[in-house]
Structure formats: C-alpha cells, structure tokens
C-alpha cells in the first residue's frame, strides 16, 4: 500500500541551567584538526561554597560545608554579626553538596553523608543551599566569559567549554583575561584547563585548582595525564573504574597500554574503543554551542486510518521508516538515546504513549526497531490508528554514557 506519510520532526530542548547567548537554534561548531584546536574548560572553584562566602565574607579561610536537609540559615544578631550552624550539631540523613577547600583538607567532600562528616570536622560551619543564588552567579560568570570569548558550550551550573582556536592572543594571556572577567563580575575564582580537546581540558582544569590555569599540549599527555587515575576521565564512572581495577588497570597510562582487543571484549565495541582513544588523549568532539536537545521524534499522520491487524504490513513499513529517520537524526547530531518511545493516536483522537529505557544507549534503526517492539506489545489497540510516532530521549553523546549517568544521580541528590 502506498500511504502518503506526513512526517513531522520534533526536537525538544531542555531548559537546564543553560544560557545560549542569543543562539535560538541547535548548532554545531565544526571540529578542526585536533592538533590545531585550543579548547578550554572552565570550572568554578568550590562554587556553591564560594557564593556563600560572598554573603558571609568573615567565613573566608574557615571550613565551610553547604548541604543537608532543612538546615537553618545563619541567625543575624543585634550587632550585625551572624551565628552559624555547626556541622558537629547536625542530625539527619543529608549529604554534603560542596565544601570549601579548608573543609576538604579535613576530609569533607561533595556527596558524603553529613553525620559522618560531622565527626571529621565538627567545628566546620554548616550552611543551607540556596540554588537561586547559585543560578544567579552562574549566569553572571557565563555572561562575563561571553564578553571575552564567543564560542561557548554550556555544561552545567559551574562549568563551560570555550573554543579559543580562532583567537590571535597567546593562550595564557587569554585565559588570564577570562579569569579576570569572571572575578570582576562575580568576585569568584575559577580554574581553566586548555588543551587540544574537551576530554583533556576537562582533566586539566582540575590539575591546578583552585584559581588554576593548566595548559597542556599533546606532548604532555604521558607526563601529566597518564599518571592520573582512570576516574579522572569524564566518561569513566565508578562502574567502569571498578571493572578496570579488576583488570589491573588503575591509571590512564595503564589504560593506554591495555590491549584494545581486551577493552573491546570487556566493554563492548563502542565503549571499549572509546576507552582506548580517551587514554591516548583522542577526542574530536566539537563544542555544542547551543542547548542540547532532550529528545528527537518523528511522527506520521496517515491519509486513512489503519487497522492494527488488517494493515499490519503498512504499519510495519511505516514504523521501520520512522525508526530509520530517527536513527538518521541521531547520527546527524552525534547522539545516542537511552529511551525509546512510541506514540499512537487513534481514530477517536485518544493518544497512547509507551516508553522503554535501555541498559545501553543506542543509535541504529535496527536497535530502535527492537526497542519499539517492546513498546508496541504494551499498547491496547482499541481503535483504528490515525498517527504513529517514534521518540528517542535521554540523549547522550557517544563516549560519555557513564558520566552522564553519574551527573544524573548527582543532580537528583541535590
Ligand atoms: N554539586 C552537587 N552535588 C555534588 C557535587 C557538586 O550539588 N555531588 C554542586 C556543588 C558544587 C557545584 O555542583 O559547588 C559544582 O560542582 P564541582 O564538582 O565543580 O565542585 P565545586 O565547584 O564545589 O568544587 P571544585 O573547586 O572542585 O570544582
Ligand atoms: Mg567547580
């Protein structure tokens, strides 16, 4: 049957913390040759805690912890001073959202249980979180950076990637200008890593924290990156780290020396290959200078309503075509999806959707078809069908699957 298919493509964008500096559409910055690129990663220092210190400057130099549940704000006295909560007095199940470097020196880090930390640093000051303030300073620092550099990828509340490739200024000078702009706008410090790609720059920005600047060339890989733990690579999460440890691989250098065949066999083709490349400092990902899409979908309204049994061949063909299209969209945007969904609109205009979340992200039309079969089995076909749609969501970039899952947990916890 030759059904005329009206295809509609939808790309849903997340709101997130993102600012997109006037870009209204999704756009890629074409990757240049790795060796030529100058990519910076900027990460704010002890971000939430530093914002709190702007409000309570007398706490500078003290162990300060931000986090917990129902933590009361400091009480202001008649003399204008504050009485602060003491970590040692905290009772409850909350976790540390972040801590100052002084608190970290006492062993108190993000994600740790506060009751446990209370024993490590009882005299530390405990402050409640104030996300509105953090979002405000996030916007301020991003605007300040945007006044110096125009190719920016927003990666979250306290980090961004910058492409400095086209700039004439020496890297160190430019990085200092950026740090100064951030400091002038917010009174906060940040750390910057510069290297030929995002993967290395992300590692680099952490090398010299706080208020750091680390510039790395491809030649520094062996001396500065290889001695580090594999978990320093964005994309090697706790699960992969543990599995690598079981194989006797703890440092990035050891990972680089591991046989690619072993990595492929242990981690599957895609992730195994990525692990090998990451350890060798290879990463061609371009900066994504606009908001990331949250989902991609294709749908089609039929000229005549179709019957689930009598028009099975046509429905199969249409579903296959939708999967092909969504797959091509994913490939075109260098994305994989972890969730696949079907949308069915019936002749009576009722709409049913079914989703499936997958253990591994997928991209191929075949994998989409297989995932969709599961969704289709769960639909109650009570009427003729007017419209079918296929949706790919929980989108991730190849190679960062692990880390994105970690980030997800991270925000859920806060
Ligand atoms: N954050 C959170 N939950 C976590 C870790 C961090 O909510 N488990 C928040 C608090 C941090 C902010 O995200 O201030 C940024 O995270 P970073 O990992 O960049 O940590 P910091 O900026 O606090 O410290 P650093 O100086 O190490 O970047
Ligand atoms: Mg930070």
What do you see in this structure?
- With 414 residues, this protein is of the alpha+beta class.
- It is built from 14 helices and 16 strands.
- The strands form four sheets. The protein has a five-stranded antiparallel beta sheet with strand order 1-13-16-14-15, with helices on one face. It has a five-stranded mixed beta sheet with strand order 9-10-2-11-12.
- Magnesium ion binds next to β2.
- The site of magnesium ion has 4 residues, from β2.
Helix content: 25-40%
Task: Assign the structural class, choosing from mainly alpha, mainly beta, alpha/beta, alpha+beta, or little secondary structure.
Answer: alpha+beta
Provide a count of the helices. Answer: 14
What is the molecular shape? globular
By DSSP, the count of extended strands is: 16
Characterize the biggest β-sheet. Answer: 5 strands, antiparallel
| Mean pLDDT, all residues | 87
Sequence stretches where pLDDT stays below 50 over 5 or more residues: 1-7, 13-35, 401-414
Strand order of the largest sheet: 1-13-16-14-15
- The secondary-structure element order is EEHEEEEEHHEHEEHEHEHHHHHEHEEHEH
Which ligands accompany this protein?
A: 2'-deoxycytidine-5'-triphosphate, magnesium ion
Taking the alpha carbons of the first and last residues, their distance comes to 53 Å
């Amino acid at each position: 049957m030759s059904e005329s298919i009206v295809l509609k493509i939808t790309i849903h964008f997340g709101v997130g913390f993102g600012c997109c500096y006037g870009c209204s559409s999704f756009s890629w910055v074409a990757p240049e040759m790795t060796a030529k690129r100058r990519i910076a990663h900027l990460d704010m220092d002890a971000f939430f805690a530093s914002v709190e210190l702007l409000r309570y400057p007398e706490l500078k130099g003290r162990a300060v912890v931000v986090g917990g549940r129902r933590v009361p704000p400091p009480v202001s006295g008649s003399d204008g001073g504050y009485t602060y909560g003491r970590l040692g007095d905290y009772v409850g199940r909350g976790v540390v959202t972040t801590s100052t470097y002084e608190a970290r020196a006492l062993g108190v880090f993000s994600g740790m249980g506060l009751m446990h930390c209370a024993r490590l640093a009882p005299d530390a000051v405990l402050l409640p979180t104030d996300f509105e303030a953090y979002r405000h300073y996030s916007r301020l620092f991003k605007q300040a950076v945007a006044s110096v550099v125009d190719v920016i990828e927003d990666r979250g509340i306290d980090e961004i990637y910058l492409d400095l490739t086209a700039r004439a200024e020496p890297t160190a000078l430019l990085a200092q200008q950026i740090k100064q702009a951030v400091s002038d706008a917010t009174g906060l410090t940040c750390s910057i890593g510069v290297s030929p790609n995002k993967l290395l720059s992300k590692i680099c920005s952490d090398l010299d924290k706080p208020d750091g600047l680390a510039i790395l060339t491809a030649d520094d890989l062996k001396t500065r990156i290889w001695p580090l733990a594999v978990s320093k690579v964005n994309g090697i999460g706790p699960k992969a780290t543990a599995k690598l440890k079981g194989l006797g691989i703890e440092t990035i250098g050891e990972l680089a020396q591991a046989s690619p065949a072993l990595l492929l066999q242990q981690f599957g083709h895609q992730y195994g290959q990525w692990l090998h490349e990451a350890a060798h400092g290879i990463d061609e990902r371009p900066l994504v200078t606009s908001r990331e899409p949250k989902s991609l979908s294709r749908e089609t309204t039929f000229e005549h309503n179709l019957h689930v049994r009598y028009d099975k061949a046509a429905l199969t063909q249409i579903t296959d075509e939708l999967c092909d299209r969504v797959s091509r969209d994913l490939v075109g945007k260098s994305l994989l999806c972890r969730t696949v969904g079907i949308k069915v609109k019936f002749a009576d205009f009722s709409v049913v959707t079914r989703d499936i979340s997958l253990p591994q992200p997928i991209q191929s039309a075949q994998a989409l078809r297989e995932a969709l079969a599961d969704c289709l089995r769960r639909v109650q076909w009570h009427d003729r069908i007017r419209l079918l749609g296929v949706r790919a969501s929980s989108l991730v970039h190849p190679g960062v699957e692990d880390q994105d899952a970690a980030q997800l947990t991270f925000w859920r916890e806060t």
